[in-house]
Amino acid sequence: MGYGALAKRCFQPLSHLTNAEREYRGELQIANTDIRRVVAISFGLPSASPDTAAGVCESRDIDATIRDRRYSWRKMINEEEARQRILEKISPLGEQTVPVASALDCFAARDYFARLPLPAFDNSAMDGYAVVASSCNKGGRLHVIGEQPAGLDRKLRVSAGEAVRIFTGATLPQGADAIVMQEDVTRDGSDISLNVDVELSEFVRRRGCDLAEGQMVLRKGERIRAASIALLASQGFADVIVGGSVSAAVISTGDELVNPGEELQSGQIYDSNSVLLRTLLQRCNVTATAVEHSRDDRESLEGAIKRGAKNHVLIISGGVSVGEHDLVKEALHKIGAKIEIWRVAVKPGKPFLFGNIPQGTPSAQSSQRSAQSRAQPRTRKTDESSVLRSNCFVFGLPGNPVSAFVTFLQFVRPAILRMMGATNLDPPHVPAKLAIGLTNDGDRPHYIRGRVEQGKFTPIGRQESHALFGLSQANALLRVADGGSHKAGEIVEVQIWDS
Predict the structure, then answer these.
(1) From residue 389, how far is each of 311, 383, 392 by CA, in Å?
(2) For residue range 47-70, what is the model confidence (pLDDT) as tens digits?
(3) Which of 150, 163, 295, 348 could join 169 in a cystine, given CB atoms 3.0 to 4.6 angstroms apart?
(4) Is residue 23 part of a domain?
């Protein structure tokens, strides 16, 4: 199938996905008692039988909730609002001091400035001879008076008609203002003959030509890369203060899932989402402390969530839609979680969930301390991240792998980066020329998977939420707005990720 036909097929709207009113009625077109049970579960209300006296009151509460929540059940929020609401709940963790060599992919918790200029002194860029340029002409002879290797300065001085044997990185002798490469001379005992003309400052690295003393070398919130570590080390920094370390747990759900390496039965599939999410966390410099699979069983799911909630972040794959076996929302409510977001207008990834799970109940002493803290200002120390953390933030991602991938990049990744102290939370973007025309006739923005090569973006594979092979061949996402279109040859901005 050609890309044009593929794009047309990929963007063809489906009535049961694009008609919000019909979708809403389909979700709630059940018996009245079941409606009350569903609403009670979703909004944390009791769901006792309406036949009892208590049940009558509870039933009235649920009826009121149905009226109050009717519109919010039907309406999906857009992705910009979802990101904003998530990030409003997230704060950076406490700072920590780590050895500079261990700071790769951490985020600086303060600004760092150069202690020394680079280079720290005038030095040679080549192996050769330090000379006075004005006394050098092609065919001329110079007398070699000494040698200056890299290391301690031997305090040599060069005059006109003289040369000093010198090596790369060695201190430039006093009086010298140029270097002639060893390949451009002929050595004759203690003299050399010049085979080229010599220009002033040739092959000389001047003090501070790369970096000035006091210049900023690392900005607060900036990712520390390998080159950043080398620069910090060049300035004598043995340690660096960075943002806190995020702990995360992953739960994959579904009776159909089997661990790779085990034997498949009819109707089963291998669990690829937990591996996908673990590696995406690693790309964020986060190691999953636990990766667990839960069957579609309320008790086992609640237990897995309680164990995972000991971390800063809990990611649950699958079970967040509206099917009878989608138990995540119910399980979260049962353990006291507060769900902030459910369903986002994005394709793929509509049944996305975000909330938080409070960690423990404050004691009388801690409550008294909290009251005192409201009356007095409190300074946060750099080692308090574990003490001050009171919530585990939970992200419910769709079970289809492409949906899980897209929602992780758009919503989970920026939240994790915020916790780690990053200032730039957006994925890298690059401009690219669109290989084919694309039109989105749907009512949600669509993230098209494709590949950027030689400045051109080409959609790859089936643009469906289960299509893992196409995702594996892609290295970029193109967001096509709902009702939007792009012409072939148009320059578009695409998100890229490490392959």
Answers:
(1) 10, 12, 8
(2) 444 444 444 444 545 454 444 444
(3) 150
(4) no
Backbone angles phi, psi at 98, to 5 degrees: -130, 155
- Contact yes or no for 223/105 (Cβ under 8 A): yes
Checking if the pLDDT of 387 tops 80, the result is: no
Do 274 and 250 lie in one domain? The reply is yes
| Domain identity same for 373 and 405 | yes
What does the pLDDT look like over 19-58, one tens digit per residue? 333 343 343 333 333 434 433 444 444 444 444 444 444 4
Q: Are 358 and 410 in a shared domain? A: yes
Q: Is residue 22 part of a domain?
A: no
The total number of structural domains that make up the chain: 5
pTM of the model: 0.77
DSSP state of 382: T
Q: How many CB atoms lie within 10 A of CB 69?
A: 13
Cβ distance 257 to 293 under 8 Å? yes
252: tokens are 């994959």
Q: Are 92 and 420 in contact (CB under 8 A)?
A: yes
Residue 446 domain boundaries: 3-12+427-496
